[in-house]
Structures are given as structure tokens and as C-alpha cells.
Amino acid sequence: MGRILVVDDEPGIITLVRTVLKKEGHVVLGAASGEEALEMLKEEKPDLILLDIMMPRLDGWETLARIREQEHLRDVPVSMLTAKSLTPETVARPDIEQLIDYIQKPFTRQSLIEKVNLILSRLQRLSENEAAPGAGADSLFKEYTDIVKAEWLHESLLETLQQGLKGIDEPYEIEVAKEAIASEQLKLDELKKKRKEIEKRIREK
């Protein structure tokens, strides 16, 4: 089970997420702003941060940048949990690569549980592999870990863009969305190819 920090300026969202995930055995902490989250993170290092984008003063992207500026937090997994739709412009942001996932509201109880449990279980498996003798100091394994995490992210982004396409009616927006989907598919294919190449190199060592 995981220790999860939810950052959202809507108290009801924090309460909802805490109620849902607590029943799964997770410990859920809440922060009502980016500033409050950064203060909490001076003492806490959660297993996962669920971060809203649309917050006053310090929005989710700015909060993410501040988190990554701190050495001890650079490897903390962060997923957006936001009502802001995933758009081609959002996917094109360089800092989206700092995420482990992008979860859109509204979500169902079951979809949130499945997504959070999937993220944590995948991270646990990677952590166990990193703990294997010799793996921790192996730069090849570090490269493998980074590629696997990127692959997870782009799988989720691609799926979310494909779902969003169903709700678009305007021809120009459809074409833009299709281009973004094609670009994400290309990125995903490249990541899978790199992962398989590294897996081969690891087996040959």
C-alpha cells in the first residue's frame, strides 16, 4: 500500500480521494495549494503525488517544477489529477515528461482505484528490480527504468487523447487531435523499441 499526497484547491476532491483510497489501504495526505504541498514535502516523501493543475497562485505545472528543483524529490512519481482536458498543446509541453501519468476528472471510484494501484504496483516491481544485486549502480538499468516510466506515461496519454477524440466535432480540431495521436503513437513505438534493445543488452551482460 502507498503513501499518497493529493494536492487540490477543492477540499471535496481531497476528501473524496482520501475516502476512496483509504479503503484500499493507502495513506492519503492532503494539501490545498501548491505552496502547502511544498511545505509538506520538506518533511514528507510520498510514494505518489496526485496534483491538480488549475490552482490559484501556484498552478500544477509550477508546483511540479518546484518539486523537481529539490534533489530529494526528483524521483517522486507525480501524476496530474485534473479537470483540465488533455490537449495536443498539453501533450507537447516538455515538462509533461516529468509525470508518471495524467488522470482526468471526472473519475469513477473504480477507475481511480485501478489507476493508482496500477501505478504503485508497476513502481514496486521496478523498485524490486533496482534492489537486485548490482542493479543499483548499473547505468544501463537506470536507462531502462527511465524508458519504462516514459512508456507508461505515453501509453496513458495516447489512450486519453483517443478517448478525447470521440467528443470533438469541429473538423480542424479533429485533424489537430489526430496529428497529436499519431505523434504519441510514434513516441510510444520508439520507446518500446529502445526498451527491447536495452532488455537485450541486459540479458547479454
The level 1 CATH classification is Alpha Beta
Average pLDDT for all residues: 93
SSE order in H/E notation? EHEHEHEHEHHH
Number of strands: 5
Tally of separate domains: 1
How far is it from the N-terminal to the C-terminal residue, by CA?
34 Å
Evaluate the radius of gyration: 18 Å
Q: Which stretches are low in confidence, meaning pLDDT under 50 for 5 or more residues running?
A: none
The CATH superfamily is Response regulator
The quaternary state of the protein chains shown equals single chain
Percentage of residues in DSSP E strands: 5-15%
* Major sheet details: 5 strands, parallel
Taking strands numbered 1, 2, ... along the chain, how are they ordered across the largest sheet?
2-1-3-4-5
Question: Do you know the CATH topology?
Answer: Rossmann fold
State the shape: globular
Which structural category fits the helices and strands? Answer: alpha/beta
> Which architecture would the CATH scheme give at its second level?
3-Layer(aba) Sandwich
What percent of the residues sit in helical stretches (DSSP H or I)? 55-70%
Count of helical regions:
7
Q: Could you explain how this protein is built, in words?
A:
By secondary structure, the chain is an alpha/beta fold. It has a single domain, classed as Response regulator (Rossmann fold, 3-Layer(aba) Sandwich), CATH 3.40.50.2300. The chain contains seven helices and five strands, in the order βαβαβαβαβααα. It has helices at residues 11-22, 34-40, 60-69, 88-91, 109-130, 139-165, 171-204, and strands at residues 3-7, 27-31, 48-51, 78-82, 101-104. Strands 2-1-3-4-5 form a five-stranded parallel sheet, sandwiched between helices. Helix 2 runs parallel beside helix 3 (60-69) and helix 6 packs antiparallel against helix 7 (171-204). The longest helix has 34 residues, at 171-204. It is globular, with a radius of gyration of 18 Å. The model has no long low-confidence stretch (mean pLDDT 93).
